[in-house]
Specification:
This protein is of the alpha/beta class. It folds into two domains: 8-203, 2-enoyl-CoA Hydratase, Chain A, domain 1 (Alpha-Beta Complex), CATH 3.90.226.10; 207-273. Helix content is 49%, strand content 15%. It has 13 helices and ten strands. The strands form two sheets. Strands 1-2-3-5-7-10 form a six-stranded mixed β-sheet, sandwiched between helices. A four-stranded mixed β-sheet has the order 4-6-8-9. β1 and β2 form a beta hairpin.
Length: 279
């Protein structure tokens, strides 16, 4: 599938879609970027050639600056009725949380406001030490995070740290963000790219059905009780066992020495040596 957008450059290689955000001068989340991101999400969600997606920026100073304040200023000053469904922006972000692909943010610059909320909606976030800055500055200008930040942050960081971020409106560097759970890992800039590349290609080498079913089971934990989530996990486990990819890879793992002492001591290396790309 060919992807063509004004503010996004997309390259698909080895089942990984590399999405470079390029909306000068500061990667503002304006209408152009919102429409492109929404269109890309709708298209890639059903692209069987893609198993993992990495978002990165062409601008070393900005991942995504924040949502366009001028757009917000045009909103009605008389509040509309309480909505019955998520907003356009919330739904756009949530699609990347729920789609059957691994979604990853490689953050090397500023990701505040809507940029932070977008990254929080992805499955994983990795940040460059000394360069990445995250935050939710909305309350400082009299509004609140409206792109899912008030819901994502407490689930990831807990109530108190979420409120520190939302009410304090301060910048959080990569090291603090890692300690808080805002990002998965903070890495030196020269190590960030190779780490994310290895992880993305590793995930994409695994069977597509297993990736999708595993992610769906984890996503269920956001919305279901523990008992309901366990039932979902059991169901998805049974579905995964029945796939051709599972049967092939379990057999190959046993042939390569799984369940023997020497191989089990370094089991991750065994998976590096297995051929990927099974359906």
């Amino acid at each position: 599938m060919a992807y063509e957008f004004q503010s996004l450059a997309v390259r698909v290689e080895r089942c990984v879609a590399w999405v470079t955000i390029d909306n000068p001068p500061i990667n503002l989340f304006d209408l152009v970027l919102m429409r492109d991101m929404d269109a890309f999400g709708r298209e890639v969600e059903n692209d069987e050639a893609v198993r993992a997606i990495v978002f990165q920026s062409a601008n070393p100073e900005f991942f995504i600056a924040h949502a366009d304040i001028e757009l917000i200023q045009r909103m009605p000053t008389t509040p509309p009725p309480r909505p019955e469904r998520p907003s356009f922006f919330q739904a756009m972000c949530d699609r990347f949380r729920t789609m059957p692909k691994a979604t990853i943010a490689k953050i090397e610059g500023c990701a505040r406001g809507g940029g932070s909320e977008f990254s929080l909606s992805l499955d994983m976030r990795f940040a460059a030490l000394g360069r990445a800055v995250l935050g939710q500055p909305e309350v400082a200008i009299g509004i609140i995070p409206g792109g899912s930040g008030t819901q994502r942050l407490p689930r990831l960081l807990g109530r108190s740290r979420a409120l520190e971020i939302v009410l304090g409106c301060d910048d959080f560097d990569a090291a603090t963000a890692e300690r808080y759970g805002y990002v998965n890992r903070a890495l030196p800039p020269d190590e960030l790219g190779p780490f994310v590349e290895r992880l993305a290609y590793r995930i994409a080498s695994f069977p597509a059905e297993a990736i999708a079913l595993a992610k769906a089971a984890v996503v269920a934990a956001d919305d279901l009780s523990t008992t309901e989530g366990l039932v979902e996990e059991a169901h998805n486990f049974n579905l995964s066992v029945a796939t051709a990819g599972a049967q092939t890879r379990m057999r190959r793992a046993m042939e390569l020495g799984a369940q023997t002492r020497d191989v089990e001591l370094t089991l991750g290396a065994l998976f590096d040596g297995m051929q990927g790309g099974e359906p």
